Fold these 2 entries.
Entry 1:
Amino acid sequence: MKKILFILYTCCILLFPVSAQQIPSFKANDRIVFLGNSITEGGHYHSYIWLYYMTHFPELPLRIYNGGIGGDCASHMVFRFDSDIKIKKPTYLVCSFGMNDSGYDGYNKPGYDKYANKQVEYANTEFGKLQQQILADKKIKNVVLLGSSPYDENVKLEGVETLHGKNETIKRIIEMQAEVAPKRGWGFVNFNTVMCELNKEIQQSDSTATFCGGDRIHPDKDGHMVMAYLFLKAQGLAGKEVAYFHINATNRKAMEERNCRITHIKNENDTISFSYLSRSLPFPVDTIPRWGTKGTARDAVRQIPFMQEMNQEIMKVTDLHGNFRVTIDGTEIGCWDGNELSKGINLAEITCTPQYQQSLSIMYLNEERCAIEKRLRQYMAMQYVFFKHRGLLFADNKAALDAAKAEQESHYLVKYLYTNYTQAMFPQIREAWQAEIDQLITQIYKINKPLTRLIKIERIKE
């Protein structure tokens, strides 16, 4: 297992050097829209990215919007750009396509290369139109193109057909994006290459393991955490600590403080105590699966160096001898000996600390925000995927409801989204959902400010 972790870590370092910044980081009051397909609409990577900013940069207010629609390719994004994306007034646009543009039906058939060429050519034509729409919106200051997460052709999945050659077509579309980005002055991040390598490594010990979900296409939360990590790393955020401090117990001095402040250091009655105020909070690693699947963010951070690079809250105390019990605001967080304390303890790995619990409350509020926003995205999916082709786009009347009801069992999308639509068709419901989202965001930025914590390190008497 250690060998696999080392290989995965090395892979990430080689592909994304720690010091590299490939794309701009977010600035205060940025309005970031993630334009994409079902991987974006139903996914979590953008939510994890925002959660990182909520906790690591609590004084940096942002708005991140899910702009995904299931089944979308570049041509669909062209159709809905003005009415669905531009209307959100983005200052920073992140655009991902390729999974659906590469097609499905033409693989595993003779002459599939001609089919693939046709798909790439059409994607290129529609991408050209999308570029012009983006360039015409002068409010957009930063644009980032995302190379799609992979279609995993190698994972062993019972009962799930493999479309041989599909990911190679996706890679051709990604190459097209990579060529356009520098010409336009846009950023580019390729999820596909790194995730393919990560899949290859984990499949050496488990042929059924993948970061691309149970259908080879849609990552579970573990895959989305990998995607969030790769995006944040491309923003140059590797090495940005939650906090680091070094206290010398003998002279009762803070020898070093990074992104935090240590005050009121005392050493009396076999107890070191001090006040600790960080400028950031630890990132709370999600342990909740979705849709009955197994993959979680916790699974991902066991296999990528997220904790080492982006979630370090180091407490280092030197000149202590013996065994010690550590409490924060009266809560015991663990026991260590003087040697371990002198090497440093990563408090971000300890889920019972008051600051981690504070972060958890932010995570749960953000999860609720994300869930409500997905209801709104499902409404938009019904409009653009179903009603558009029936001349009922945004009709939201009896004719629209009857059309949806008639195909509730036969249409792949309506089958899952009909109930949501029966509510979302009313503007008052959508307005109420948006108001709830706004309230949740306000609450998050109210409670995400780090608090001064009292840390005590008490010698354990034998």
Note: The longest helix spans residues 354-386.
Entry 2:
Amino acid sequence: TYLDDSLRYLTISKWCEEWLKTDFARECRYVPNGIDRTAFVPQKRKFGNGKIRILIEGDCGSEYKNVDESFLIANRLDPDRYEIWYMSYTAKTKPFYRIDNNLGAVPHDKVADVYKSCHILLKTSILESFSYPPLEMMATGGYVVARPNEGNSEYLVDGENCLLYQGGDYEAAVTAIERISLDESLRNKLYLNGLKTAEERDWETIRSSVISMYGD
């Protein structure tokens, strides 16, 4: 398909734009991906009352989702302070996963409620076309600790709207979670910048630029 000169290409990923150009000599126009903020209403999280909930999301059977790393990190957290929720459309787990609430497949219209029920999203994917969960979590007012990849690098900025750690450095990820849990000033900064990021990606904000791509 990529060798068909009669086709025009649009992509939602900056890295895919470069990949098509480098590997297939295809000129591709970038169309930003967006979010419906009416479905992901922000709610300020409260810390200090009960356990801090960590959300892990993704199919553990997918190599690219790298869910094992999430649990290798989560298993290092104090179980008296942290509660682990797991959301996956397969509901499958592995014996070494410490899970307090295995949500399984969640209907789309209930996903925002899951985000709002948790404090921090731990996302460890190694490859995504466009990574939605961190954006959705920020839109609901939650916090993100993530492993950087090409699908989230468009909008995640370490220390501004999230905390990033280098893949495989489990202790760095634990430290990031602890920083968010303990540092109210940092939380306020991440919260405000996270909402700003979601606003910039609102479909209503980018609607005209998306439509113009199809009209040219």
Note: The first helix runs from residue 14 to 24.
